[in-house]
Design brief:
The chain has 84 residues and is an alpha+beta fold. It is 42% helix and 24% strand. It has three helices and six strands; from the N terminus they run E-E-H-H-H-E-E-E-E. The strands form three sheets. It has a two-stranded antiparallel ribbon with strand order 1-6. A hairpin with a 2-residue loop joins strand 3 and strand 4. The protein is elongated, with a radius of gyration of 19 Å.
């Protein structure tokens, strides 16, 4: 890429907070109903295992409560390049 004249600048990653879930179950439901691979994996589990996974997710999300909401940080990095 450098041979093409592009110069890169990379900035350190930052924690981004997306729309927080309103309940601990909302995050599990998003994966159970909205993420193709996660949905397939979760639906292939026996009901008892799926409920154990839901309980584990609920417990982890509950630990992320800040006041009246759940704050889940996601990694984000900003990179850019410019051709002179």
């Amino acid at each position: 890429m450098r041979e093409s004249g592009l110069r890169f600048s990379r900035h350190p990653g930052r924690a981004a907070v997306l729309a927080p879930p309103e309940s601990p179950d909302e995050l599990f439901d998003a994966f159970h109903e909205g993420a193709v691979r996660a949905t397939a994996m979760l639906r292939s589990q026996p009901a008892e295992a799926r409920e154990n996974i839901r309980s584990a997710v609920r417990a982890e999300v509950e630990r992320l409560r800040v006041d009246d909401r759940f704050v889940i940080s996601v990694p984000a990095a900003l990179s850019w390049a410019r051709k002179p």
